[in-house]
Amino acid sequence: MIKLNLNGKDHEFDAPGDMPLLWALRDVAGLTGTKYGCGMALCGACTVHVDGQPTRACVTPLAAVAGKQVVTIEAIAEQPAGKAVQEAWRKLDVVQCGYCQSGQIMAASALLSANRNPSDADIDTAMSGNLCRCATYVRIRAAIHEAARSLA
Ligand code: FES
Ligand code: FES
Fold it and tell me: Which ligand is in closest contact with the Cα of 96?
């Protein structure tokens, strides 16, 4: 049994410690907002927060997050930065197919939690590991600036 805090609540996973966190979230906890893209830490689709840090759930074993705080897209709006990011995403109509976007929102929320006034370069650095096959990058950057303004 692996215990952790999931989206603000104590949670026990009855699953092997080497199971990727992504599968524990999707298949055991039923939280399907976190997406599988590459499975190799290359695309960012599976990004969640572990103790506030953006983390690739596809290459993180469940045992590695024992005792930690894990936040997924399902609960990100409970944080000020996450709420601001989701509102900016809607306002600027960022999403195209949507597949990459929960990972994008998690990365953007972590950035704004740490830096309330990011430059274009800060945004490019923070978001560089999150790929979007629909190429929504220009709207993503604009939405992060919009979210930063709303948090100011
Ligand atoms: S699915 Fe984890 S980084 Fe691509
Ligand atoms: S919105 Fe389609 S992959 Fe990013």
Answer: 2
Interaxial angle between packed helices 137-151 and 101-114, expressed in degrees from 0 to 180 and rounded to the nearest 10: 40
Strand-strand pairing, 53-56 and 9-13? unpaired
DSSP state of 25: I
Ligand 1 pocket member 85 (CB < 6 A): no
Using alpha carbons, select from 96, 95, 58, 101 the residue that is nearest to residue 76: 101
Task: List the one residue out of 124, 125, 126, 101 whose CA is nearest residue 111.
Answer: 126
The response to whether residue 137 sits with its C-beta less than 6 Å from ligand 1 reads: no
Q: What is the mean pLDDT of residues 135-141?
A: 98
Residue 79: what pLDDT? Answer: 97
pLDDT digits (tens, 9 = 90+) for 113-122: 999 999 999 9
